[in-house]
Task: inverse folding
C-alpha cells in the first residue's frame, strides 16, 4: 500500500512506514498541529516504501519493526544502504531492551515505543531531521553498558536476513516453511542455515535453540515473521 498525501515546502517531510492504518493515522494526527512538519506519504510495507523513496525526497522516515514480507530490520538495512544520510526513527510496540540497541547499531536515528506521547515523537522527529540521534534516558543507559562490554554477542555478526532465519529456526520452523514465508528456495535457506551455524559456532539445532532462548532472541521472532 502506498499513500502519497501532500508535500509542503519549508516543512519537515515525513514518510510513515507501518502496516496498520490506525497507527499511520495516529502518527499523522500527532504531528498535524506542528507548524514545521507534515506526513507527506505512507507505506504499509518495505517494497512500497522503497518505491516511494525512489520517487520522492523525505527528511525523516518513521519505521515499524513488524511488517509483512520483510522485517523492519531488513527494511532499515535497505534504506540505509541506498540512502545513508536519511534519518530513520523506529517506532515499535516492543520495549527498548528488546531491540533498541540493535536498531541504533543498524543505523536508526532513534527508537520509540508506540505508546510514546505526541510531544516526545515531535521532539524525536525534529532531532532526527537536524542530524541528531534521539535517545531516551533508559536507552542511553543501555548504550553505555553496551559500549563498556568488550565481548559482543555472536548474533551481531549475522546479516538481517541471517538473523531472521535463525529466529525462525529457533521456533522449530522447517526449511520448507521458512522458504515459503521468505519466498526463497529450500536450497537458499539451507545455505543461510550453514552460514549461521558457521558464524555462531553451533554444532546442532539444539545449540541454536538454547542460544536464542538464553538471549531472548525468540521474542524477536515477532519482529520478523509476520505475514
Result:
Amino acid at each position: 500500500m502506498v499513500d502519497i498525501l501532500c508535500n509542503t515546502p519549508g516543512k519537515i517531510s515525513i514518510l510513515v512506514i507501518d502496516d496498520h492504518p490506525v497507527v499511520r493515522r495516529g502518527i499523522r494526527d500527532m504531528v498535524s498541529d506542528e507548524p514545521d512538519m507534515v506526513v507527506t506519504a505512507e507505506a504499509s510495507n518495505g517494497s512500497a516504501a522503497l518505491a516511494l523513496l525512489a520517487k520522492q525526497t523525505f527528511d525523516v522516515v518513521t519505521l515499524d519493526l513488524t511488517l509483512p514480507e520483510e522485517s523492519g530490520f531488513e527494511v532499515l538495512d535497505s534504506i540505509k544502504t541506498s540512502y545513508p544520510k536519511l534519518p530513520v526513527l523506529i517506532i515499535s510496540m516492543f520495549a527498548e531492551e528488546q531491540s533498541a540497541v540493535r536498531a541504533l547499531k543498524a543505523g536508526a536515528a532513534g527508537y520509540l515505543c508506540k505508546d510514546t506521547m505526541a510531544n516526545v515523537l515531535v521532539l524525536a522527529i525534529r532531532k532526527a531531521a537536524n542530524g541528531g540521534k534521539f535517545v531516551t534516558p533508559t536507552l542511553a543507559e543501555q548504550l553505555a553498558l553496551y559500549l563498556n562490554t568488550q565481548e559482543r554477542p555472536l548474533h551481531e555478526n549475522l546479516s538481517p536476513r541471517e538473523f531472521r532465519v535463525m529466529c525462525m529456526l529457533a521456533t522449530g520452523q522447517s526449511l520448507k516453511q521458512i522458504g515459503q514465508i521468505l519466498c526463497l528456495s529450500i536450497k537458499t535457506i539451507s545455505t543461510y542455515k550453514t552460514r549461521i551455524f558457521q558464524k555462531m559456532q553451533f554444532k546442532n539445532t539444539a545449540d541454536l535453540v538454547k542460544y536464542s532462548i538464553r538471549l531472548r532472541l525468540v521474542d524477536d521472532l515477532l519482529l520478523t515473521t509476520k505475514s
Notes: The mean pLDDT is 85. The longest helix spans residues 186-200.
